[in-house]
Amino acid sequence: MLPITLASFSLMAQHEIPGDFCISGNELKMYNLINNYRKKSKLPEISLSKSLCYVAKFHVNDLFYNKPDTADCNLHSWSDKGEWAECCYGREKFNNTCMTSKPVELTNYPGKGYEIAFWENVDADPEVVLDLWTSSQASNDLILNKDIWKDKTWKAIGVGILGGYAVVWFGAETDPEQGVKICNSAENVSQQPVAVKKQETDTTSKTGEVKTASGEKWYLINASFDTKEKAEKELQKYKASGFKSPAIVQSGNIYRVSLGTYATREKALEVKKRLNPKYKDAWLHKQ
User: Fold this and answer.
1) Distance CA 175, CA 45 (A)
2) Is 50 exceeded by the pLDDT of residue 253?
3) Could you say which of 26, 51, 70, 228 has the lowest number of CB atoms within 10 Å?
C-alpha cells in the first residue's frame, strides 16, 4: 500500500477508516518499545488502537505538510488545512480541548485522546524518540501513568511517524475498531537497534561557535518566528537566562531560535535531557 498523503486524508469522510489503512514497521516498533518500557515498571500492555493510529497519522501528516508548529505554536498544534478544529499550542496559548477531542472529531473512538510529540530534521528513530520522551518528566509521567495521570488506565494507544515527526496518542477507553494492519507485512519489522556512531571531537571557537571535522552543526530549537526582529528578542531572553551559545537559524522565511549549538546529535540529545522542564519541547535541527 502506498503511504497515505494529507490530501487523501482530508477528502475522506470522518468516522470512516479506510479498509486498507495500515501502520509502518517503524510505527509498530515504537508501539512495542513503549509497551516494553511499561513492563519494566510492572504496568500492563496497552492495546494498539486503530482509531488512535488513524488520528496519529492525521497529525504527523498535518505537521509534515502544513507546519502548524511555527511561530508561537508547538507540536501539539493543528493547522487550518483539514477537516478538524485548528488550534495553536504555545507558552501563552493553551487549548486542551482541541487536543483531547481529536479522536472524536476524526474517528468513532468514544473518548478523549492525550498526545506526546517529537520532531527533529532527520528521520525519527523510535529508540531515540522513546529515550527523549522518557527523559522528560511530563512525557514519562503520561507513559507510566504517574502524577496527574495516576488515576487513568490506558486502554488504547496510537502511533504515527513521518519524516522527523513522531506522535503517540493515549486513551482510557477501549477502541471499538478492531485490528491494525501492518504495511508490507511480509517484510521483517523487528529491526535491530541502530548502532550509535562514534562521536567526533568537537571544538569551540573564541566566539562560541561549535565546529566539527564534518562541518555539521546540531541545534536545540525552542522557538520559530516569521521575522528576524521577533527572533532577536527571543535570543536575548535566552542569553539573559544563562545560555552560552543561543543562535538564530534561518530557513527561508522562518527564523528559528536555538538554545545551543553542538557538534554531534548525541551531544545535543545529552544536553536536551538535562534541560529545565520549561524547555521540554525543544527539538533538534541539523545543518
Assistant:
1) 15
2) yes
3) 228
Q: What radius of gyration, in Å, describes the C-alpha atoms of the chain?
A: 19
What are the two backbone dihedrals, phi and then psi, of residue 11, each rounded to the nearest 5 degrees?
A: -90, -15
| CB within 8 Å of 108: residues ≥ 6 apart | 15, 51, 176, 177
pLDDT in tens, 223-251: 888 788 888 888 888 887 777 778 888 87
| Residue ranges with strand state E in the chain | 22-23, 114-119, 156-162, 165-171, 181-182, 203-204, 210-211, 218-225, 247-251, 254-262, 283-286
Per-residue pLDDT, 14? 57
**Would you say 189 and 128 are in contact if contact means Cβ atoms under 8 Å apart?**
no
SS3 256: strand
| 3-class DSSP state of 97 | helix
**pLDDT tens readout for residues 267-280:** 888 887 777 777 77
Q: Say which amino acid occupies 207.
A: T
* First-last CA distance in the chain: 33
Q: Residue 200, exposed/middle/buried by CB under 10 A (0-12, 13-18, 19+)?
A: middle
Q: Are 171 and 115 in contact (CB under 8 A)?
A: no
Distance CA 216, CA 199 (A): 12
